[in-house]
Design brief:
Elements (H helix, E strand, L loop, with lengths): L8 E6 L6 H10 L10 E6 L14 E4 L16 H6 L4 E4 L2 H6 L4 H13 L3 E6 L3 H5 L3 H12 L10 E4 L13 H16 L5 E5 L4 H8 L6 E4 L6 H9 L1
Parallel strand pairs: 1-2, 1-8, 2-3, 3-4, 4-5, 5-6, 6-7, 7-8
Helix pairs in contact: 4-6, 6-7
The protein binds 2-phosphoglycolic acid (PGA).
Amino acid sequence: MLEIGNFNKIIVANWKLQGSLSFIKTYIKNIKFDSVEEQTKCVVICPPFPFINQINSKDLLIGSQDCSVYVEGAFTGETSTKMLKDIGCNFCIVGHSERRSLFGESNEMIAIKIVNCLEEQIIPILCIGENLEQKKQNKTKEILINQVQKSIPKQANENNMIIAYEPIWAIGTGFTPTLDEISEIHTFIKNNILQSKEFKILYGGSVKSSNCNEILTQENVDGVLVGSASIDIEEFNKIIES
Ligand code: PGA
């Protein structure tokens, strides 16, 4: 397993249901590797399953957007962490809010997925975050505590797992929390929920080249999880350069 502690900045591209072979060819040709070469910076690309082993670049790490709760057997349409490891995945996004809301994933299923990742030495990137209603009702911290307590198995720790704080109302909307809010929530997750300053916590939700610099310099922000801006190579180059 990769030593997460060695990275002081982690940038994850979540392509969601987008991409093609020709898109990947152009993307890899145009990505600015110079800024990725620093050992302390880690850039992870998470394409859809069929394209995972098409990203052949020594400077990029590969992740999956999801994995199965199952390991092997008669489960049509599923992809196991064993298979993901086999094709070179080092990371796997787990419990993204779109998986939770559109595909009915529970915290309990997410905990199983994390165990499956850890068994294959894949680093799970666990997504947590509140929706707008919960934010308005001042329930953000309560929601995060519940998600963390129910979805993190006992085998997981700061050396083998990453958290992504993604307020659902910020995903794909162009809205973000204030910088103070981001820092406050990340500090709360580290100090109060996980009780470890060493846990890496990424921020996700409408990250783009114009806001990533200031987000990345906030206290207790260890990186970003980027959706739509990661599909635009010019945008993404500016993000990895920051
Ligand atoms: P966005 O998506 O950057 O398009 O808001 C982030 C995510 O869903 O991880």
